[in-house]
Prior knowledge:
Elements: H1 7-25, H2 29-49, H3 54-62, E1 71-80, E2 83-89, E3 95-96, E4 99-101, H4 108-120, E5 122-134, E6 148-160, E7 168-174, H5 189-200, E8 207-208
Parallel strand pairs: 1-6, 5-8
Antiparallel strand pairs: 1-2, 1-4, 2-3, 2-7, 5-6
Helix pairs in contact: 1-2, 2-3
Amino acid sequence: MEISTPNWLDWGREIQALAQTGLTYSTNEFDILRYRRLEEIAAQIIASHTSLPLEEILGNFRIQLGYATPKIDVRGAVIHEGRILLVQERLDGCWTMPGGWADVGETPSAMVRREVQEESGYQVRVEKLVAVYDANRLPGVRLEFFHAYKLIFLCTLTGGEARPSNETSAVDFFDLNQLPQLSASRTNRQMLEEVFAHRADPGRPAAFD
Length: 209
């Protein structure tokens, strides 16, 4: 089930992306001034609908360089003996599949293996892509300004042992019908149901959107 983003957020995102891309390629000082003004308008839209200070929003915009594209969040879905591996986030105390923002220079499978091991202590083999979601349009996900895609990969446990990290406070396996409180911006029930469906049907095509 997809949720709709408010118009102000869609407008703010699009204007900021146009400004960021324009500033990347413009050399004419008048064009640069115009794109800076668009950047300010986008920040004003966001500030008027949130509690964030205008200067903080502008500062965040100005560290975003290059052609504007969605950010990538990867998650490792590890099912072992019928239960899914989840880690407890220190930030909110809720549970999620291990993962995080993609790093430059790594392949997707290497990122997933590293994230799972760093956050849970377990080693895995990455088997297949389960889903590519628009991370800002999923039920239960808080709206973020920057557009993001979430990539979920089905993995097989190969070794290691449960070990929390500086980002996670606990590690455990859960039955789909006995889930703890989920960190909805990172993992929700829809994602987990898709993961179990792929485990049950190896030929199932990747979900998307």
